[in-house]
Amino acid sequence: MSASRVILGLLTLLAGLAAVAIVIANPVAHSEVHAGHWSFKGFFGTYDQAQLKRGHQIYANVCAGCHSMDLLAYRDLQEIGYTEDEVKEIAAAVQVMDGPNDAGEMFERAGRPSDRFKAPFANEQAARAANNGALPPDLTLIAKSRAGVGFLGYEGADYIHSLMTGYEETPPEGVTLGEGLYYNHAFKGHQIAMPPPLVDSPEAPLAQQAEDIAAFMSWASETNLDDRHRMGIKAILFLVIFTLIAYAAKRKVWAHLH
Amino acid sequence: MAAPVFKNPVIRWIDHRLPIFSYLHHEAYEYPTPKNLSYWWNFGSLAGVMLMVMIATGLILAMQYTPHVDHAFNSVERIMRDVNYGWLLRYIHMNGASMFFIVVYIHIFRGLYYGSYKAPRELLWQLGVVIYLLMMATAFMGYVLPWGQMSFWGATVITNLFSAIPWVGDSIVTLLWGGFSVDNPTLNRLFVLHFLLPFVILAVVVLHIGALHRFGSNNPLGIDTKGPQDTIPFHPYYTVKDMFGLGVFFIFFAFWVFWAPNALGHPDNYIPANPLSTPEHIVPEWYYLPFYAILRSIPDKLMGVIAMGASIVILFFLPWLDRSPVRSGTFRPVFKWFFWILVFDCVILMFCGKYAPEAYWTPFTFEIVDAATFTERYAALAGLSHEAALNAVGEMWGVNFASGTFGIKIVRLGQLATIYYFAYFLIILPLLSIFETPKQVPLSISKPVLGGGRAAAHAAAKPMEKA
Are the C-beta atoms of B331 and B438 separated by less than 8 Å? Predict the structure, then answer.
C-alpha cells in the first residue's frame, strides 16, 4: 500500500469518525447532569434486580401519587424478580374499572397481573387540576425521552438521578421563582413544578433512592436490555467467526489468481 | 460463454423452457468482473443486502403496527415489549435505515471519486440517484410511523416545504395531508407509501443492475477491461469477497443494534406526538442533515427548497458537468484534492444541519454556544458593553483574535459549505476538465502487473486483493 493510499484511507476514516461524532456528540451545554455508575452499562451490563425492586417500591409509594406508567402491566414486575404470587398480590391491591357487565354497568374489581399500572388520574384535565396546572408526565419512557439518549443510552438514568438530587432550597441570587415552582439545577430552565419527591433519611440516603428510582425508570423504558446485551454477545461471537472463515476462504480463493 | 449444462434433470427441464438458470449462471456466476476491484466496490452488494434486511424486518413489523394516530405510538411500544423478539426486529429496522444510508453514501462517494458516472455508465448513475431519492422519501415516511414528537413535527416541517411552490403550494400540502393539518389521513397515506416504495426501489435496483451488467463494473484504474486477461468470474471471486465484507459490516451493524440502538435517533421521539406542543429544536435524522443545512442556508423559503432539490438534481447532470476523459481520481492530481474537500464539506454541512442556525461554533474550544452566551463571552473578553458586543458580533462573524474569541455563526458556515457544494459540480469540475493535466493512465488492467518497471515490482510483491 503506497503512502498516498494510507493517507487517503486515514482521511476517509477521519471524515467518517467526524460524522459519527457530529451525530452523537452534543456539545451544547445543558443543565448540570452527572454520570452515574449503572449496573446496566457496558457490553455485559445487566439490571440489578434488587435495585429495580427498591426502585419500584419508591415509584409505588411516591411517584405513583401523580405519575402514571401506562405501558407497564403488573405481570411485567415478574421480570424484576417478584414471584407470580407477589405480582398477584401487588395487582390485587388496586381497584380497577372494568365492564360493562351483562347488566350494562361499569364495575370496580381487584386488579389482575394482566392489568396495566393504574393511573393516578382519570384524564389530563384531572391531573392538571390537582397539580397547580402542571401535567405530571407518564414515566414509562421517561428515561429514553429526556436529556438526550447519548452514545450508549444511559443519559436518561443520569438525568433522573441528577433531577432527584438537584433540588436547592434557596435559589441562587437573582433568580425569582414562579408561583408554585421549585429550584432544581438539573432541570431545563431550573424551575420545576414538581416538589422535591424524595426525603433523605439515614436508612435510605437521598442519593441511594435517586439511583434506585433512576434504575427502575431505565428498566421501564427498556425492559429488553438484559436480553439485548446477552444476544448481542452471541451475535458478535458468531459474526466474528463467520467473518474469519469468510476471510480465510477469500484468501484461499484469490491465492491462485495471477 | 457457452450455455451451462445442468446435471439436475428438473433444472434442465425448466431451463429449456424458461432459461432462468442460464440467465443466473450468466449474470451472477461467470459474469466477467474487473480483477482489480478494491474493497470500496463491496458497498454496492452491501446496499442490496440492506434493502433485503429492511424489507424482511419491515414486513414483520407491519404485521404488528397500527397506522392510527391514537394507536401508532403504543403499537410500536407493544412491538418492543410484548411481541416475541419485537425489540430486535424494530432495532434492526430502525438502525438498518442508518446503516443503509452509510453504505449508500460510501457507494456514491466511491462513484464520485472513480468517475463511475462517466460514459458509458451515465444511465447506471442516474438510476442510482433515483434509488437514492426513493430511499430518502421512504426513510422520511418510516420515521413518521412511530408517531412520536419528532415524527409529527418532522412530518409537519417536511410536508410544509411543498407550500413554497407558488400558487398551487397550499393545495398540494392539503392533498398530502388529506386534510388541513398532519393528522390520521396523513399517517395512513405515509404508511401505505412506506410499504410500497421499497418495492419500487427494488424494481429500480433491478434496472440499476441491468445497466451495470451492460458494460460491467468500473474499477479503481477507471480504464475499460480489454479482454479476458483483465477480468475474473464474479463467482467465486467476488461472492467470497462480498461475504467477507458483509461479515465486517454486520459486526458494525450489530454494535448499534445491541448496544446503542437509540444513539442515532432523537429522544423526543419517545414522547407521543402532541400537535399542541412544538419541540425546542426540530432536527431531522442524520442522513438528511446536509440537505437541511442547504435548505436553511437560504433565507427565502422557495429558494431554499429549490436549492435543496437542486443539490440532488445536479447529480443527474454530473456525467456532462465533468468532461475529463479520465475516470479514476487516482490519475487526476488536482481533482483528488477538490474531491476530498467535497467529502469534508458534506461533513460540515451535516454539522450545520444539526445545530440551531443562530448558534455559534467556536473552533478553538470546539463548542456550540447559543447567540446570547457567545455575545456575553465576547463582551467580557473584549471589555465591551452588551450593546457594543451585540453590534460587534454582528450578523456574519464574531471574530476577535486579540481577545481570544473566535466564533462562526452556524448558518454562515452552512452558507459557505453550500457554496462549495454547488461550486464543486458547477464550476470546479467543468474547469478541471479543461485545465487539469491527468497523469499517465495504464494501458490495461493487467498491464501494471505483467509489464516491467517499478509499478510491476510493487504490485507483484503484494497479494492480489490489495493491488
Answer: yes
The domain ranges of chain A are 32-72+123-223, 77-115, 231-258
Selected from 1.10.760.10, 1.10.274.10, 3.30.2350.10, 3.40.720.10, the CATH number assigned to the domain covering A32-72+123-223 reads 1.10.760.10
Asked whether the beta carbons of residue A254 and residue B463 sit closer than 8 angstroms, the reply is yes
Domains of chain B: 24-282 (1.20.810.10)
- Look up B208 and say whether it is catalytic: no
Per-residue pLDDT in tens (0 to 9) along chain B, 467 residues? 456 889 999 999 999 999 999 999 999 999 999 999 999 999 999 999 999 999 999 999 999 999 999 999 999 999 999 999 999 999 999 999 999 999 999 999 999 999 999 999 999 999 999 999 999 999 999 999 999 999 999 999 999 999 999 999 999 999 999 999 999 999 999 999 999 999 999 999 999 999 999 999 999 999 999 999 999 999 999 999 999 999 999 999 999 999 999 989 899 999 999 999 999 888 999 999 999 999 999 999 999 999 999 999 999 999 999 999 999 999 999 999 999 999 999 999 999 999 988 888 887 777 888 888 888 887 887 777 888 777 777 655 666 666 667 788 899 999 999 999 999 999 999 999 999 999 999 989 987 644 444 444 444 444 444 44
Q: A108 vs chain B: nearest CA distance in angstroms?
A: 25
| A250:B240 CB<8 A | yes
| Ramachandran category for residue A68: left, alpha or beta (phi over 0 → left; psi -120 to 50 → alpha) | beta
Cell of B410: 452556524
Angle at B348 between CA B342 and CA B351, to 5 degrees: 150
SS3 of residue A26 by DSSP:
coil
ipTM entry: 0.90
The alpha-carbon gap from B422 to the nearest alpha carbon of chain A, in Å, equals: 20
Strand partners, A110: A95
Kindly state the cell numbers that stand for B454. Answer: 517499478
Instruction: Compare CB distances from B258 to A141, A144, A229 and report the shortest one's residue.
Output: A229
